[in-house]
Amino acid sequence: MRSLAKKNVWIVAALAGVALTWGCLGGRDKPVDFSADVKPILNKKCITCHGGVRAKAGFSVLFREEALANTDSGRPAIIPGNPAASELIRRIKEKDADRRMPYKHEPLSDEEIDVLTRWVKQGAKWGDHWAYLPVKPVPAPALQSSWPVNDVDRFILEKQQQLGLQPSAPVDKPTLLRRVSLDLTGVYPSPGMATRFLNSNDPRAYEMLVDSLLASPRFGERWASLWLDLARYADSKGYEADHGRQIWRYRDWVINAFNKDQPYNEFLRDQIAGDLLPHPTDAQYIATAFNRNTMTNDEGGTDNEEFRTAAVLDRINTTWEGLMGTTFACVQCHSHPYDPFRHDEFYSFMAYFNNTRDEDQNPEYPFLRLYNDTLQQQLDLLTNWVKQGSNAEEAEATRLFLKTLQPSVYGSDADSLVNAYIDGNNGPLALRNHSFCRLRKIDLRHATQLIFTVYAQHPGGTLSVHLDAPDGPLAGKVIIPDTRKTGAVIMPISSDRQVHDVFLQYNDPSLPPGFAKDRLYFEWFAFTSDLPQPGSEAYRQNKAVFTRLLNTKTQTVPVIIENPASMQRTTRVFERGNRMTLGKEVHARVPQSLAFAMPRNAPANRLGLVMWLTDKRNPLVSRTLVNRVWEQLFGTGIVETLEDMGTQGTPPTHQALLDHYSWAFMNDLNWSMKKLIKTFVMSATYRQDSRWTDELRQKDPANRYYARGPRVRLQAEQLRDQALCISGVLSDKMFGPPVMPWQPSGIWSNPYNLESWINSAGEDQYRRSVYTFLKRTGTYPSLLSFDATSRTVCTARRVRTNTPLQALTTLNDSAYVDLAGHFADRMLRESGGDPVKALEQGYQIMTFKSISPEKLAVLKRLYDQAVASFGSDPSALKQFTPDAGASKAALKVVANTMLNLDEVITKN
User: Fold this and answer.
1) How far is 344 from 332, CA to CA, in rounded Å?
2) Residue 477 vs residues 415, 494, 508, 520: alpha-carbon distances, Å
3) Residue 453 falls within a domain, yes or no?
4) Residue 401: which H helix or E strand, with range?
């Protein structure tokens, strides 16, 4: 019996060994996933030396065709299906440290070597990174749990169960009220809205609250701040001169777009290509200011073309980082080291943006000219008459010119200057007596008149137009009038209707030699066709309307206008990213390495580009937006690196959830941002209590798996707006020019101009932060302290810091001390004047809940100490609150402290 038992043990062991052997063989035969298994090893251990920037020994692992190509040895390093003959596998297994790869680094682990060996054996198949693969519908997990409210919770709970986590209990109603109000509107709800929610027993009370907040005009103001970071919106031009810029109508357009829930695909379309739409509205032109937020350099001695190019490059990088969550800027100089983008593809993409009429000018042409209703009606009547007497194309050209003064040639484009110069490099063109200059390759095929504005130091003299040479055929001439009285000059011209170099000559024989004030200054020249039916009464009347509209002084906003065909630029590759070293010519095209091609029949311009961006085959746009909204609500993105979902970005914690809602956003939700946001805030995941437990500290300290509610410090604008709201002074005024809330003198220093910060008065000093004047070289200090950006470039993610300067700001900044005084007044007013009840009321205002006896005792003790201190030091009292007694001043001190409580400066 004993020998039989021993024999059975041996048989069981043998069978187990066979099973283990077969299991291992099966594991080794399991298909290797390139994106999940191989690419991380190559990126971490190989691509630094063998990638887009460097390909040592002629070997690169960035693209499959490069990886399988011959190396400097004349043979490929990877032979698909044959790891034994592959130099790559031999070198990573090499025992000699001088020959082993990675060179002079830690050797690969046995597991990594096994992965690469099996990958080569299986054919060295390539694959795309997860973010570049099309979004497909992902079904939500089927779970046996009553906790989920919607699909968000099913994805979250599945991951928690895998990690042994449990969701936290629902948060109390007051905390949820404050949390969702700050997330959706950036400020507190109205007292009526708050009371209805807190006192309601209706199961739908929370959803009704959410719907009310989404419908509030405050919603657009809160979410506009997020978008303005991406759009690098500012009220100044940047660089050292940093002159002011009147572009605030774009900010108002963004607020309106969020409030009316414009579908995201249309939201992008208007901003990238609104000017190319059929019969664009003023709003669609204004939307294109998205790409006029780039900086311009007004300093004398700068090269306009250099900074025009810099603006174009910025537009490329903003499109990729802000809209597609992908780093692309490095491709300007070389192929991407980690992602599948080639050097020349950067410039093919650049061609989409390289043909706009802005040229780093001062003023910042082109502008949209904004007519009042009466003038707009006159314009409509004029263009309808042109359409009847000519054609729709001529009518549209007339409308475009009167609204934008385009297409025109800028004075700074003139060359061959004789007794003439470009004033300050950015223009205008200055002609002196007996001078000439050239405008190159002017399309005169439809031109019968030349329109220009001129400032004449001394009216009189003749401006003549010659073709191809200073003494070439005369096309027209005009006596320079006093344009301070007459406005723009309209000169009839005649030619053979071809493309010519145009020479402008200025002569005034009446001026004595050496006369100092002989200059004419020109900003732009427009070669246009005249109105139809010349000589008729209708022509005379409509010409008067045309001239009146042309010379009307209007408000303007910088916009994007495309070059006409005759002014198209050629786009060439910049060798090593240097614009002075031009390579081959390229044409507008999206990267061919991506699986989603340009839609059929898409034009090769920005309108075609936005069709590609918002095509449902393009996974990057929807994934980026869903990830960004998630980050705003939960504190961290599903992909933490919002700016980079590529191979060097952090892997997604919940890729299935991201893909599920990226697909739903485009299809089920029809690109509705409000519906997406509502879905997230309605989830049980969002409504959890945010308190830590010992288990959560150990298993998920960063809350990446959402077993508790979000707890993060409020953003800069939210902190200031909350203080305004709590203090009872927040202005409801919307839109309009930026305001200048209180800041001490000396923050701005403008050696180039006399611009200064003028503190706003009345309610303007208490308007929301989205309306605060943002000067790039002098950002509002308290916002900057809390990680607001100067918006010199697209900011895809604000990084939260924690510094002593932040506490010093909220406790000592005069603006916050002022708000503390208003808060103290409100507490007294709403509590009947009793200081202790005022403290209780103040806490209720801030948190929507009653204060605990322990916290009240601490605040009461601070109040008593402040009363005693001010009572014994009248000079300190007078300095702190000149018109109040010790009790009022003490309550102001406590109010200032309350505005700095942890539960106030954080969303928890």
Assistant:
1) 8
2) 20, 10, 13, 15
3) yes
4) helix 392-404
pLDDT grade, residue 6 (50/70/90)?
very low
Q: Are 281 and 340 members of one domain?
A: yes
CA distance linking residue 766 with residue 741, whole number of Å:
7
- Please report how many Cα atoms fall inside a 13 Å half-sphere around the Cα of residue 123, on the Cβ side: 7
Same domain, 464 and 507: yes
| Dihedral sign from CA coordinates of 30, 35, 37, 42 | positive
C-alpha 890, offset from chain centre: 44
**Domain range for residue 14?**
1-26
Q: Model pTM? A: 0.92
Q: Is residue 147 assigned to a domain?
A: no
Q: What is the pLDDT of residues 286-297, one digit of tens each?
A: 999 999 999 999
How many folded domains does the chain comprise? 6
C-alpha distances in Å from residue 458, one per residue of 7, 524, 806: 119, 19, 58
Tell me how far apart the alpha carbons of residues 636 and 442 are, in angstroms, rounded to a whole number: 54
**Per-residue DSSP letter, 565:** G
Q: Do 194 and 185 meet the contact criterion of CB atoms below 8 Å apart?
A: no
Are 576 and 563 a contacting pair, CB within 8 Å? Answer: no
Quote the strand ranges of 371-498, DSSP E. 409-410, 415-422, 429-443, 449-456, 462-467, 474-479, 489-492
Q: Which residue has the tokens 């009839």?
A: 492
844 and 828, same structural domain? yes
- Cα gap 168→691, rounded to integer Å: 8
Q: Strand, coil or helix: what is 885?
A: coil
* Confidence at residue 425, expressed as pLDDT on a 0 to 100 scale: 63
Residue 150 lies inside a defined structural domain of this protein: no
